[in-house]
Amino acid sequence: MGPDRTPADAPDLGVQLGPLKLRNPVMVASGTFGYGQEYADFAPAERLGALVVKGISLQPRTGNPPPRLVETAAGMINAIGLENVGVEAFIATKLPRLAALEVPVVVNIFGHTTDEYAALAARLDGVPGIAAIEINISCPNVKQGGLQFGSDPAMAAAVVRAVRAATRLPIITKLTPNVTRIGDLAAAVEQAGTDLVSCINTVTAMAVDVFSRRPKLANVVGGLSGPAIKPIALRCVHEVAAAVSCPVIGIGGIMSAVDALEFLLVGARAVQVGTANFTNPAVTLEIIDGIERFMRHQGLTTLEDFIGGLDTSCRFPFADQ
Ligand SMILES: Cc1cc2nc3c(=O)[nH]c(=O)nc-3n(C[C@H](O)[C@H](O)[C@H](O)COP(=O)(O)O)c2cc1C
């Protein structure tokens, strides 16, 4: 610390996210940070705003056959197939170590029926060490011909209502971008009782190999993530923030502090970093430090003066042409 600085000068990166208070707005996204241990040497969990674990289902799942990951221009497509240890093994073997860390732990859940989501929420209710549940609704509803829960406001709302009735934990509902009007989905899940909304999950995509004349993923299609989706994610956060009054968490292609700040400006109160952890396992710390440097540079003592501050009144000449 320089001679002209006192601890009182330090900007406050803390954010209030509905019922959750985070030390900073930088979380790690589900499925990209394992259960925390894998990254302990690079990005100590204690520095993060919060940690979201890999999606958990009632039963263990082995996921899809390989190949399950493919790199694309400015991103990657994954079709992991939601491989996970199942809720009982998660509680018994993964959660105790996570709960010992000084970081809010968010448990991401998914199911194939509304009852499965409710059963997971009920099982996690009251288990020590869980700060919140994040509901992944980008999953096929087996009782509705495989239509994704997240693609229909009524189905998405039914899941949230069932989870709300089953747990006292704060609920984050994670929206899919693979819809026409994401704001309608956001409004429906808020009405159904979610405490927060996070967006976006991956964008449905595929990659092909002309030599083998085959898809590059065994599952044929997968989810695109990384810098390629950031502009889509920003647009989604912009629409969602206008549609709800609950806090919004921005996700999608965040690689740097400036990327994260863009989401905050558009109206997110926190962000999740996903794919960037694969290319730089210390990226979250760099983003946190970068946000702090930006706040000093801008003379911001708190992020409250920045969040949602996007000025959309200024239009470029010839914008309509
Ligand atoms: C390998 C991989 C696994 C993922 N697993 C999950 C998951 O289990 N549950 C979930 O809600 N999202 C999952 N996601 C989506 C991410 O949490 C995130 O929403 C998405 O990747 C966009 O953010 P990014 O561009 O920063 O990666 C996964 C993403 C990747 C790349």
Describe the structure.
Strands 3-4-7-8-9-10-15-16 form an eight-stranded parallel barrel, surrounded by six helices. The chain is an alpha/beta fold. The longest helix is centred in the C-terminal third of the chain and has 16 residues. It has a single domain, classed as TIM Barrel (Alpha-Beta Barrel), CATH 3.20.20.70. It is globular and about 50 Å long. Helix 3 runs parallel beside helix 4, helix 5 packs parallel to helix 6 and helix 6 crosses helix 8. The structure holds flavin mononucleotide (FMN).
Strand-residue fraction? 15-25%
The unreliable regions are none
The whole-number mean of residue pLDDT values reads 94
Strand count, sense and barrel status of the largest sheet are: 8 strands, parallel, barrel
- What is the subunit arrangement here? single chain
Strand neighbour order, sheet with most strands: 3-4-7-8-9-10-15-16
- Count of beta strands: 16
- Overall number of structural domains: 1
Ions, cofactors, ligands: which are bound?
A: flavin mononucleotide
CATH class: Alpha Beta
CATH topology descriptor: TIM Barrel
Class computed from helices, strands and strand pairing: alpha/beta
**Rough outline:** globular
Percentage of residues assigned to helices: 25-40%
Which series of helices and strands comes N to C?
A: EEEEEEHEHEHEHEEEEEHEHEHH
Secondary-structure arrangement, i.e. CATH architecture: Alpha-Beta Barrel
Give the radius of gyration.
19 Å
**Number of helical segments with 4 or more residues:** 8
- How many angstroms separate the termini? 52 Å
The CATH superfamily turns out to be: Aldolase class I
